[in-house]
């Protein structure tokens, strides 16, 4: 792994809103092929970190590279699943159309999706267990179903890096299990998956890599090495005890 370029390399990243730092002097390398959780308290800058990688948020200092190049040059290698709350679910479109939108990046804006793209979208819907809902308006789907549709849209991009902002938020246990299985499949296929995550109890079960964040980077590395009471206490500012799985 040390001879490879990291999937994402972040150097001296600082982001501020109204002159208040949200991320401060972040140095972070995310190796290729890991399934990584970003954890930290509310306001720690977790979503901002994802949005900075995607250049949705502009930093005031620092640089970010994707496979050794600026994001704009490798953006087709990156797929994004936004927070559910940031999406207009009343937009009049059905599930299949939302997933087809994932093919636009590689087609460009002039070409229209054809049969090949439709086939890929249907396969992605099947993979997330939503094929039977392909004609359903997204506003008529449950929260868990909506999240699966956005996962399918990311899958159809066939990216090398998947950035997901709280994909388990507001989903039922069945959907959560399905999403976890999908993330592990992506990792098995050599993809890099970065997830903003809140449930500390499930970190050892779901992820193999973790980054602790609270405006500054506290620690990053394999879950088995750094997911411990010391780093949890440094990140959350109180004495933390989490039952860590022995598996």
Describe it:
- There is one protein chain.
- This protein is α/β, with parallel strands linked by helices and 247 residues long.
- The protein has helices spanning 46-53, 71-74, 95-100, 104-107, 115-127, 143-155, 173-188, 203-206, 223-226, 229-236; strands spanning 8-17, 20-30, 35-39, 61-66, 69-70, 78-81, 161-165, 192-196, 209-214, 216-222.
- The strands form 2 sheets. Strands 6-7-8-3-9-10 form a 6-stranded mixed beta sheet, with helices on both faces. A 4-stranded antiparallel beta sheet has the order 2-1-4-5.
- It is globular, with a radius of gyration of 18 Å.
- It is 32% helix and 25% strand.
Q: Key terms for this structure?
A:
247 residues, alpha/beta, six-stranded mixed β-sheet, four-stranded antiparallel β-sheet, 10 helices, 32% helix, 25% strand, globular
Query: Regions with pLDDT < 50 over 5+ consecutive residues?
Result: none
Helix content: 25-40%
Structure classification: alpha/beta
Based on DSSP secondary structure assignment, what is the total number of beta strands?
A: 10
Topology record:
Layout: E1 8-17, E2 20-30, E3 35-39, H1 46-53, E4 61-66, E5 69-70, H2 71-74, E6 78-81, H3 95-100, H4 104-107, H5 115-127, H6 143-155, E7 161-165, H7 173-188, E8 192-196, H8 203-206, E9 209-214, E10 216-222, H9 223-226, H10 229-236
Parallel strand pairs: 3-8, 3-9, 6-7, 7-8
Antiparallel strand pairs: 1-2, 1-4, 4-5, 9-10
Helix pairs in contact: 5-6
In a nutshell, what does this entry contain?
With 247 residues, the chain is α/β, with parallel strands linked by helices. Helix content is 32%, strand content 25%.
């Amino acid at each position: 792994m040390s001879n490879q370029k990291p999937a994402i390399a972040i150097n001296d990243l600082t982001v501020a809103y109204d002159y208040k730092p949200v991320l401060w002097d972040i140095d972070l390398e995310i190796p290729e092929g890991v399934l990584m959780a970003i954890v930290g308290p509310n306001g720690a800058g977790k979503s901002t970190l994802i949005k900075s990688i995607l250049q949705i948020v502009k930093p005031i200092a620092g640089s970010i590279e994707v496979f050794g190049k600026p994001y704009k040059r490798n953006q087709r290698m990156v797929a994004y699943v936004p927070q559910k709350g940031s999406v207009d679910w009343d937009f009049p479109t059905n599930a299949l159309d939302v997933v087809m939108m994932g093919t636009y990046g590689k087609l460009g804006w002039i070409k229209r999706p054809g049969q090949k793209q439709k086939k890929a979208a249907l396969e992605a819907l099947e993979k997330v267990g939503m094929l039977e809902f392909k004609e359903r308006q997204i506003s008529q789907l449950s929260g868990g179903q909506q999240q699966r549709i956005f996962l399918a849209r990311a899958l159809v991009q066939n990216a090398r890096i998947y950035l997901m902002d709280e994909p388990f938020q507001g989903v039922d246990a069945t959907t959560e299990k399905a999403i976890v299985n999908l993330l592990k499949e992506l990792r098995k296929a050599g993809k890099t998956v970065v997830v903003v995550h809140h449930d500390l109890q499930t970190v050892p079960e779901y992820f193999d890599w973790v980054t602790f964040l609270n405006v500054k980077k506290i620690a990053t590395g394999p879950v088995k090495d750094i997911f411990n009471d010391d780093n949890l206490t440094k990140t959350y500012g109180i004495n933390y005890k989490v039952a860590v799985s022995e598996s």
